[in-house]
Amino acid sequence: MVRAGRSLQQLRPISITRHFIKHPEGAVLVEFGDTRVICTASIEESVPPFLRGKGTGWVTAEYSMLPRATHTRSSREAAKGKQSGRTLEIQRLIGRSLRAVTDMAKLGERTIYLDCDVIQADGGTRTASITGAYVALVDAISSLLAQGKIAESPLKEAVAAVSVGIVDGQALLDLDYQEDSSAEVDMNFVMTSSGRFVEVQGTAEAEPFTLEQMDAMRNLAMTGINQLFTHQQEALSR
Amino acid sequence: MVRAGRSLQQLRPISITRHFIKHPEGAVLVEFGDTRVICTASIEESVPPFLRGKGTGWVTAEYSMLPRATHTRSSREAAKGKQSGRTLEIQRLIGRSLRAVTDMAKLGERTIYLDCDVIQADGGTRTASITGAYVALVDAISSLLAQGKIAESPLKEAVAAVSVGIVDGQALLDLDYQEDSSAEVDMNFVMTSSGRFVEVQGTAEAEPFTLEQMDAMRNLAMTGINQLFTHQQEALSR
Amino acid sequence: MVRAGRSLQQLRPISITRHFIKHPEGAVLVEFGDTRVICTASIEESVPPFLRGKGTGWVTAEYSMLPRATHTRSSREAAKGKQSGRTLEIQRLIGRSLRAVTDMAKLGERTIYLDCDVIQADGGTRTASITGAYVALVDAISSLLAQGKIAESPLKEAVAAVSVGIVDGQALLDLDYQEDSSAEVDMNFVMTSSGRFVEVQGTAEAEPFTLEQMDAMRNLAMTGINQLFTHQQEALSR
Amino acid sequence: MVRAGRSLQQLRPISITRHFIKHPEGAVLVEFGDTRVICTASIEESVPPFLRGKGTGWVTAEYSMLPRATHTRSSREAAKGKQSGRTLEIQRLIGRSLRAVTDMAKLGERTIYLDCDVIQADGGTRTASITGAYVALVDAISSLLAQGKIAESPLKEAVAAVSVGIVDGQALLDLDYQEDSSAEVDMNFVMTSSGRFVEVQGTAEAEPFTLEQMDAMRNLAMTGINQLFTHQQEALSR
Amino acid sequence: MVRAGRSLQQLRPISITRHFIKHPEGAVLVEFGDTRVICTASIEESVPPFLRGKGTGWVTAEYSMLPRATHTRSSREAAKGKQSGRTLEIQRLIGRSLRAVTDMAKLGERTIYLDCDVIQADGGTRTASITGAYVALVDAISSLLAQGKIAESPLKEAVAAVSVGIVDGQALLDLDYQEDSSAEVDMNFVMTSSGRFVEVQGTAEAEPFTLEQMDAMRNLAMTGINQLFTHQQEALSR
Amino acid sequence: MVRAGRSLQQLRPISITRHFIKHPEGAVLVEFGDTRVICTASIEESVPPFLRGKGTGWVTAEYSMLPRATHTRSSREAAKGKQSGRTLEIQRLIGRSLRAVTDMAKLGERTIYLDCDVIQADGGTRTASITGAYVALVDAISSLLAQGKIAESPLKEAVAAVSVGIVDGQALLDLDYQEDSSAEVDMNFVMTSSGRFVEVQGTAEAEPFTLEQMDAMRNLAMTGINQLFTHQQEALSR
């Protein structure tokens, strides 16, 4: 297996553009190769019922794809009247990932919504979403600090995510759509900047995988995520 | 009433970017000032049940706004499980407008979906959607012609749309969000390049309007739409 | 084009029967030819959440057709579990039209529901609904005045509506179903008794229309609506 | 307990008006006192999937109340997006009752929809619906016979229904809304003109009832239903 | 007609197992032959909105079947997104039946949910549910008494239910699925231990039934329900 | 941390009862301690549309919990009208796990539905479901073989699943509800009898986890799953 333009251990070109949309407190366009996701962070001065009066905040995510983000048009979930299991699964993952690096007591009794809307899909939309949503979250937190609404950042460390897989028996980093379609195994890793794991999800699409394969994928993911932290830092320092 | 940077009879800066997304047969980013809409055209080789076997095609539209396209976040229709009356009304309008310039027999037994997704809203999202969707539709038709699937373009003429209104008693062209919020009357005109009307919608938001006001708004709209046809042509000639 | 029993500029026989149903505060059977609509006005001593505590009222409308109001049975929206785009569009139009003549501060913190249920459809159901709902609204307001709940009528003027269209190139007033089905253009005008416009909606069903055609239709509509005001007054004086 | 204008063993004034609406094959306005229901019968030349190709027909019913058929406005089921348990229960009952007197083989592979829409409710809406729907069904069957679509009527006998109850310990026939609200027991009987039972439904609203009370109610119901058969016959002979 | 293993007047083997599940306040597995239903009673210290602040309680029921409780798999209502008319009808019946023997004032401002989940269906699931739910309700009430939350039992008497029918012209007690499928008439009786009726529901599936048949069925039901009271008492005394 | 009755590396008592329900082709009650799940396998002689005519089969799963399977009653998904994200996520996991060991070509053009209904929940419901569903699947396959519908078993190997977690810094096997509630990390492993992985899901509930912790959990899971294979074999040999 040979990849056009990059080695098996390489990420696609990564781009993180802040302030892509004018209204939200955080608004990022994140690109992993041809995968492009708009990640916005919106602050609301209230919390869900189960948290009211407890003095702690909440971070939650919603995910969607434009109908024609994909090769063939998929029908619009709002028109069908329900979100698919895949959508719910991904947005739950994004929400958990960002909550893992946020101190809810320091956030105070408010909610931050992270909306990840895929405008072009080419594999890895959930990992790009997590990576971009973190940057949008930092910007939203900065606006709270600037307004004096919170005294101290509730962010404990950075979080980023990448997909890895086994294609033709070989471990690959950051699969695009075509690679993903022919992968025997597909894993997603979500890690924090202290080198720890927040989420690990591995699925044998065709054939169960061995301990050795899992370790090879995990090593690749750790390398890739470290590079994503650098991209996030560069975007945030601009 | 004085407008920053433009006269009462002027459009906002208009921008039409083709090929904004890679997968769709037509993919346009249309901007009316700060209003930004992704309009894609997707071809499907089938028609709705009521047209099957009749040899004629169909053009239909779907419309949505990203939750944070607006000043404050609005909840996601897919999550709520139904589209609002406003959404249905707008997408029906877009569909009718584009069907008005398409010869369904020449299109053949296929459907073109026009998806208009507002990524940033600042007034006039439905008129920007119609104006941009026309360009996406031209590109989709061109791909059908290039593939030899149709021999002749089913497009009869161009279509574009603009909003007009009465603010502080004066007629204004192409209202932005703030103007729209304080307008006494809001009208939308959809016209074809032969100078004829496809849709006219006027609503008194605060106070009923007079015949003279309607005529003043109509005149403004006719001027503005002519300029939009020029923008469409320039985009298509690039 | 020749019409059976009336000229192109004539309304169908109009009938407005008050107190058609015993429970509602206002209950009108309105007939435009064979189109028959039950319009009821119901008072509730509360307002929607967005108005609570502001001291102002609300007027809203709901619209429906009995399954067999039409030539062929259409399926029941309650059974399908959602209202069609057409239904939502019409009931939003009715609500806006009646709100345009009501002073919400004078109404006080209460809601008036206008339910328009078409029991027999033969074209012009939305214009008949608006015309009849106004009379039901007057009766409901009278009951509030009679009970001393409000001191002064919140109604600023009367409102009525009519459809016009172009059939075989000629402008027609108050189209029945068959005329509507073959119309090239279909417009609905909603006006107040001071001769001003509340809503204007024009749609080219087959062919875009010219400025001259729009003006011809508008003139017809203005004449027809004036006659509807007379019918409303006669019904209210009985 | 004394009743205004009728004895405890008397029906309310019954009225059955045929051809109340022009489009349906059968269209009846049935009135049991102040309860008024429009019952239409619509023929469709197809059957539900589970009957296709079997050569037999189907009779089914749908039931609804206008929002303001009642003292206080109830919210519209189409707007809520689902039919209540009460609605489903009643329309299932109406369907079963009319199917009980129809020979499905003689009906042939077609469906008759019975739509019962209550425009004014004052108790006994389900029994009025059944009684009126039978007359609408006869008219629809007659149109099939007249068109030569069927050679012989599939109707085996007539069907009608009445409510009975216990109020203040006494058995009452044909309860109005106020009586129904204070009834200890509420029973509905559906019978055929051969004096047999199709449906029996009894519910203790406040206190369980005895065998003797059940028998007293049953006797009253049998008398009342016989009178309803006469009303149906008279309406059909006009 | 001859029955395997029992006479026409006999119940199937009845079994009532308490404490079948560990969490609920009442948890019964009830078996009528091969029909097996888990009935749980759950106490919630709140009441529905229409009862708040009135000092009285509420008893309500929900009913469901596992998809494969039946011979062929039926689709899951949660997946279809709505409960069928049959489900709603049955759970309303169960709720009414149990409320009939409960003094809501003595229960205090709390709700008892009775969940009846059929894990194996062989006819009579609604009557088994009522019979088992009563035992679960007694256990839940006992826990309230034991905790001192109420001083006195709100249960006025016992309630149980059985089905009867006409098969081949003969009256049968407690029909299993196969008998039910071929029954000409199907009746369900719900009675209290004082020998009074709470609910009576009879349906002619094929042919209307006579007064004599109704009486024969009623007699059978009264005998069968008396035996069910004994089974309930035995279970509660263990 | 000390566990009552078992070491940190021990499974809870495991019980697998076949033929628990009479209708389904496979019907298993699986118990992991106090967690009890009914797993049924139902064969349908058709496949979803995307597979029609391809000669291959499908295996899919649905998951649900009885409302009172848990400490406090949770509302019924059928009544709410939609399945939660958690439910969809779990049933997708079960389906993928069982498909991973099934040769769809050998299964032929038919679908096997695996319904996992939790009647009592005490942690690990998804892993118990997968482990039990495999046994139900084997029984369903056996019935196909016995009827000669397939010549050869499509099952490639066994599949089972277990949860592991970190509580108070220590790795634990097979967490019950209370342990799961206080776990810092929660992982689920799905493996095949050849010692390979089908699914790996790890979530940091409170604190991100290290590579060493992941390896400790993985080792525990591998040991536990091997014991589950023994339990499955024993159940199948009875």
From TrEMBL, chains A, B, C, D, E, F:
Keyword vocabulary terms for this entry: Nucleotidyltransferase, RNA-binding, rRNA processing, Transferase, tRNA processing, tRNA-binding
Determine if tRNA processing is one of this entry's keywords. yes
Q: Name one GO biological process term.
A: tRNA processing
Listed EC numbers: 2.7.7.56
Pinpoint the Exoribonuclease phosphorolytic domain residues. 10-140, 159-223
Q: Which Pfam families match?
A: RNase_PH (PF01138), RNase_PH_C (PF03725)
Enzyme class, one word? transferase
Under Gene3D superfamilies, the record lists: GHMP Kinase, N-terminal domain (3.30.230.70)
Question: Which residues hold phosphate?
Answer: R86, G124, T125, R126
Q: Tell me one GO molecular function of this protein.
A: tRNA nucleotidyltransferase activity
Domain of life of the organism encoding this protein: Bacteria
Q: Which residues form a coiled coil?
A: none
Give the catalysed reaction(s), semicolon-separated. tRNA(n+1) + phosphate = tRNA(n) + a ribonucleoside 5'-diphosphate
- Membership in a protein family: Belongs to the RNase PH family.
Say what the protein does: Phosphorolytic 3'-5' exoribonuclease that plays an important role in tRNA 3'-end maturation. Removes nucleotide residues following the 3'-CCA terminus of tRNAs; can also add nucleotides to the ends of RNA molecules by using nucleoside diphosphates as substrates, but this may not be physiologically important. Probably plays a role in initiation of 16S rRNA degradation (leading to ribosome degradation) during starvation.
Assembly, in brief, is: Homohexameric ring arranged as a trimer of dimers.
Full protein name: Ribonuclease PH
Q: Which organism is it from?
A: Trichlorobacter thiogenes
